[in-house]
Every structure is written in C-alpha cells, then in structure tokens.
Amino acid sequence: MRRGYHVKYLRTAAAGIWGLLCGVPMLAAQEVGATPDSVETVDRIVAVVGDTAILYSEIIESIVQAGAQGEELPDPGTPEFDDLTQATLTNLVDSRILLQKAKESDIQVPPEHLDSETDRRFREIRNSFPSATDFQNAVTSSGRSLVQYRQWLRGQVRSQMLIDEYVRANRDKLPPVAVTEEEIQAYFEENLSSETRPASISLEQVVIEPVPGEAARDSSIQLTEQILAELRDGKDFEVAARQYSMDMSNREQGGDLGWIQRSVLVPAFADAAWAARTGQPIGPVVTRFGYHIIRVDNVRGGERKIRHILIQPMIDETDFRRAGEQAMAVADSIREGAEVRVMAERHGVQEVPVRFPEIPYDQIGQFGEAYVQALSNPVPGSVIGPFQTEGFIPGRPVFAVVRITGYQSEGAWELEDIREQIRESLLNEKGYLKFIDELRNEVYVDIRL
Q: With contact defined as beta carbons under 8 Å apart, do 402 and 383 qualify?
C-alpha cells in the first residue's frame, strides 16, 4: 500500500504517524459529525489490525479532522481523494500497530501527565467555539455530557501518549537509514521554498477565577441540604436533577454522567463517589465547580455509573471586583520580577497550564477572542493584563495575566536556517516508516480497501 501524501497530509513519522488517529476530535466549531459532500458514508470494515477492526467511517472522520485543522482537501470522487483515502488508511493501520505494540510493552502513562494533556486538548477544542455555551451545546447534541466527552477525549490522549512513549523507548532500535543532500533540497523546494514562515509566540500565564462570597456559599449549602432532605423523603433523583441542577450538560438526562473512571474526575468528587454506597445520595460534596449531590447507581470494575446534582453559588459584582484586584496584584508582582509559575501555583486555576512555547501566532484564537485582542502587539518580556476572558463555566468569566516570553515575526524560509531540522525530520520519518514496516511482520494486518 502506498504512503502517499506523507508530506502534505500526514505529518512526519517522528511527530505524527499517528496524527490522524489521535488528532482533534470530531467536535469542531462547525456541524458535529459533518462529512465531505458526496462521500459514501455506508460503513464497512476496511482493515483488521491484530484483534481490532478499522471502519471506513474512521477514514472519513480522519479526513474531516484534517480539514477542520486547515488542510486543503481534494474533492471526493477524484483520484487525489482516493489517494488521500488510501494514505489515511495506511496512517490508521500504522497507528494501530504502534498502539498494540505499546500495550504489549506494558508502558504506563503517568496520570498527572495524562490529565494535563487532556486539559490542554479540551481547552483547545472548547476555544475553537465562539463561546463556552456553544461548545457545551455541541457536546450535548453529540449525545455526550461534558464529563463523558472529556472521558472519551482522555482515552484518545492516552492512546497517543502510549504511542509516543513506545516510540521514544525504541528510538535506539530504528533501522539504519541515510538522508542525502538531494532529499533535503527536494523537501525544502516542495514544502518550504515558496512558503512564508509563520509568526510564532511563546507565553506564560496565570488565570484567576472569581470566588463566590460567604453569603452565596451559605445559600448554596442550604439549597443542597434542602434537596438532600427531599431525596431522603422519597423524591426521585432524576426529577430533582431536572428541577435543580445547574450542570446544563446533563440536567435533562437527570444528572446522568454515565460510566466514569475515577481518574477523569476532580479528586474531591472522585473520593466521595468511590466511598458512597450504591443508590444512596450523598452531599454536599464541594469542588471548584460548586456543591454536588452524588448518587452511584452501579459499579463495574474500576468504573462507577453516577448521577449528580450541581448547585453553583452565585458570583456577584463584588466577587468579580475582588478577583480583578487580585489579578492586578499578580500582574504587578510579575512586572516586578516574580516568577509566573510561582504566581500561578499561589493564585491561579491549577487545571490551566502555565507555559506555552512557540504557538503559531495565528492560532492564538484557540485561547479565546480576548487573547487575540490582548496579544495584538506582542513584545517579548512584556506583561499583558489582567484582561477578562471566558472561563470554564458558561457565563462566569476569569481574569488572565500573560507574560510574553518570545515572538518571531513571519518571513521567508531559508534552507541554511533549517537544513539540520529537515535532515533530522527525514531521518526520523524514514527510520520510523522502516521500523513500522518491520512491526507489520509481528502483527496480523488484513487490508480490505
């Protein structure tokens, strides 16, 4: 099978043989589940790798993902589209082979690394939507709650991290390959000679979230205890969830979170759920999202089937003003020399990563429109903010303080500047492709397309 489009559509093997398998999920700021016009969507098995099947719909999903990330796609029905379909299938097969070998090698992914990368990907996808409400509506319309979607995303990220670690662990086992000067020159002329190097920006940030006042917290606790009393008196949990819960992603489903692994939940919620008796409502359980009433409906291995009711304390103008003043003090401290990392640990939302090196400048919008405006004139070393931006909870903005650590303007690519990077990339690509070809001899592969 050909590995066509390996430059334009499939990233170099060193960074992304598995890119289309574990790329941005089918949840872009457009119709969820959209497929290219005129593409046949009748599903069928197109390949078997080991004991898993690859479906035709997975190829189409991968192609749509590439389009959602800005790739130029050929028209369906053309020879170019057929080539892309074959190349995408090859990429999916390669990814499944690597994932299977990674699992056989008993490679472990540290939970904290998995959670951090899942949070980054979740935020990137969420910020591709005009608002958090639009994102939440898209998730809900796809048939998942936000918790279920994050759990699915976590599985995708885990697969990618397993492959990454397997590849790193076997770096010294790559078959010997060579890259000629002619190949370097050809790669440059085909991909970069007529292209403009995009501008990039590096930054550090602290995100500060308003905290509800004492009166709002007391009111929420009182309401939570009232609901608990109603449940103990026989009120149906699902009815109570639809009546009271402020988690709009699962409110109409009676607070149903589905089957959940402990690792995808915030610690306080997970600790309470795993200590609860089946069928018995417990609460109030306090997390940064508010006060929860939790009921575990069933247990299956390391999973729980959970429903919850969320009561969120109201945030008023005083709370916003207090958070804004704290953000201003953080910004002043950073301007006076305080480390952003230290300020983030003391005052920031812990789930938000601090450092972002070399982001394409035209992708700042993934953080939200407020970042686009705030970073419109990037000067390395400058501290921007605090400025208000959309937070994790719809209708509850947060404050961001950003320190720009680097900026490179766009310009023409020069071969001499990137010769060694191209050489390294091609060495990795050729080595990994040869490595995977050898792995194919160890894994059952049946191509049916």
A: yes
**What is the pLDDT, as a whole number, of residue 129?**
79
Please name every residue paired with 419 in a beta bridge, in sequence order, or none if there are none: none
Same fold, 13-168+440-447 and 200-210+316-411: no
Residue 29: phi and psi, rounded to 5, are: -75, 60
pLDDT at position 370 is 93
Other C-beta atoms closer than 10 Å to the C-beta of 345 total 12
The class (CATH top level) of 200-210+316-411 is: alpha beta
pLDDT classification of 149: cutoffs 50, 70, 90: confident
Is the bond into 130 cis (omega within 30 degrees of 0)? no
pLDDT band at 18 (very low <50, low <70, confident <90, very high): very low
pLDDT of residue 401: 97
Of the pLDDT bands very low, low, confident and very high (cuts 50, 70, 90), residue 42 is low
| CA–CA separation, 53 and 180 (whole Å) | 38
Domain ranges of the chain: 13-168+440-447, 200-210+316-411, 214-311
Computed over every residue of the chain, the mean pLDDT equals: 83
Token output for 16:
């992304």
Structure tokens at 349: 């939302």
Taking the whole predicted model, whether its pTM rises above 0.70 is answered as: no
Calpha distance 306→192 (Å, rounded) = 51
Q: How far apart are the C-alpha atoms of 159 and 102, rounded to whole Å?
A: 9
pLDDT beyond 70 at 402: yes
**pLDDT score at 44:** 87
Other CB atoms within a 10 A radius of the CB of residue 308 amount to: 24
CA atoms of 383 and 327, how far apart (whole Å): 12
Which token pair is 335? 């301007």
Q: How far apart are CA 146 and CA 269, in angstroms?
A: 15
Q: Which CATH architecture has domain 214-311?
A: Roll (3.10)
Tokens of 437: 């070809």
CATH 3.30.70.980 holds for 13-168+440-447: no
- Measured between its terminal Cα atoms, the distance across the chain in Å is 10
The tokens of 418 are what? 């990137």
